[in-house]
Amino acid sequence: MPTPIRLRDLIRQIRAARTAADERAVVQKQCAYIRTTFREEDNTFRCRNVAKLLYIHMLGYPAHFGQLECLKLIASPRFTDKRIGYLGAMLLLDERTDVHLLITNSLKNDMNHQTQFVVGLSLCTLGSICSPEMSRDLAGEVEKLLKSSNAYIKKKAALCACHIIRKVPELMEIFIPATRSLLTEKNHGVLMTAVVLITIMCELSPDTLAHFKKLVPNLVRILKNLIMAGYSPEHDVSGVSDPFLQVKILRLLRILGRHDSEASESMNDILAQVATNTETSKNVGNAILYETVLTIMDIKSESGLRVLAVNILGRFLLNTDKNIRYVALNTLLRTVHADTQAVQRHRSTIVECLKDPDVSIRRRAMELCFVLINGSNVRTMMKEFIVFLEKAEPEFKPACASKMFYAAEKHSPSRRWHLDTMMKVLTTAGNYVQSDVVANLVHLISSATDLHAYMVKQLFKAINQDISQQPLVQVTLTWIEQPSCRDSANSGVDL
Fold it and tell me: Which has the closest alpha carbon to 252: 307, 300, 299, 207?
């Protein structure tokens, strides 16, 4: 057979196709040729043909007829063949196909290979396609590799163990001893994968969570060393020492300190150091501060530390980056009940976010503002919401009007103010007012017997100005039918 074209030449041909039909013709011709070479057991260019087939698969065309060829490449002694074979296995095989079981023996053999990169390929593939059966068969091999003296292999083995534990949680116990020892490593890659592995274990098993709480001092020490470490070009990102590892440790500390006063107390000092010493001029520092805030608010931390966390979010609200402002609002909304008073100090900044051009920021700001309403600020907040309601898009008005009614009902300083406010909401939101607000307003007016005459005047004044608002007309007509309305008319009110 003629020498097959190279992958780069196939890519050029496909990119040169002017129409989808031309592209399909190129792909079909190449797939037919590859099938022929597979049937003829052409070993010379098997690697090249499988590589082209994988590219065709990535374009969305069927390529599963190359599964067995991938297994043959994996069994090859050449690293270049194994690399393409394992890549093909990760793309074309999954646990739903029986073919993937045939790879188990090759994976086991390559895990004991002398070349670290071959071992790494086998571990990556196992993590990608492992089924419960494969996990049980090869968990022991992965556990042995966790104890390897090679940092590269340990890192890959830890990541593979993460996938195995997710697939078969009962295999967790065999990895616990080796995982604990990984926290003493100097290599940052091994440390990061160890922290991720412990995090997954703690999330899946309460018993394991209790076991790893003993390691909180170790994690605190690692985090402190990262903060105090000088400049290291290998791990530095925008002046911050290994922010990825810092974020992973903070997430694990959050899990370990949740509902545990003793563990939380041992974290307070380091969390305060991270919160005060992290550079905020770059996004890297903001990412670490964000994780620090989540950790502080989720564990049983000191009240002063919670105030510090809320103040960090307050600074985020002043950031020019709209993504950071959104994250701050979202986090405040999740944590406001932990320390409402601290969040109230930033109320004016949060209210300003109601005027933000970004619709998602306005939505989060609206939700947070409603949570912050109380008896002392209800008058001010309602004025702000009426201004917001006048300019808001239609999608905001129904929810905003309903929440304004319930907030006014809960925190109203007087009946007269309550009715005046709801009349303003009714006329401002117009036809976007929902039926529950209409019914509740009618009930509210009915119960305010001393204000019936006043409300009759207000309703008719509003309806004379704009009769096109259906909710306003509904409230007025429903009210006219009430006996109390007729009593008001008999008392001398000019309807």
Answer: 299
For residue 321, what are the contacts with CB-CB under 8 A and spacing of at least 6? 283
Can you spell out the DSSP letters for 433-469? --HHHHHHHHHHHHH-GGGHHHHHHHHHHHHHH-TT-
Q: H/E element holding 146? A: helix 132-146
Residue range 53-95, pLDDT digits in tens: 999 999 999 988 888 899 999 999 999 999 999 999 999 987 7
The DSSP output letter for 64 is G
DSSP single-letter state for residue 59 = T
How far is residue 77's CA from residue 260's CA, in Å, rounded to a whole number?
Answer: 53
Q: What is the DSSP track for 273-342?
A: HHHHHS--SSHHHHHHHHHHHHHHHHTT--HHHHHHHHHHHHHHHT-S-HHHHHHHHHHHHHHTTT-HHH
For residue 493, the model assigns a pLDDT of 47
In the three-class reduction of DSSP (H, G, I as helix; E, B as strand; rest coil), residue 2 is classed as coil
* Alpha carbon distances (Å) from 158 to 108, 167, 198, 492: 16, 14, 10, 85
**Neighbouring residues of 73: CB distance < 8 A, sequence distance ≥ 6:** 46, 47, 50, 81, 82, 84, 85, 88
Q: DSSP string covering 161-228, please?
A: HHHHHHH-GGGHHHHHHHHHHHTT---HHHHHHHHHHHHHHHHH-HHHHHHHGGGHHHHHHHHHHHHH
| HSE of 362, CA atoms in CB hemisphere, 13 A | 17
Q: So what's the pLDDT on residue 495? A: 44
Give the helix/strand (H/E) hosting 140: helix 132-146
**pTM for the predicted model, two decimal places:** 0.82
Residues belonging to the chain:
495
Cross-strand partners of 377: none
Provide the 3-class DSSP secondary structure of residue 61.
coil
* Best CA proximity match to 61, nearest among 29, 85, 38, 84: 29
- Per the CB < 8 A criterion, the answer to whether 409 and 387 are in contact is no
How do the residues of the chain divide into helix, strand and coil, expressed in percent and rounded to 5? 80, 0, 20
Three-state secondary structure call for residue 404: helix
Judge whether 389 and 428 are in contact, CB under 8 Å. Answer: yes
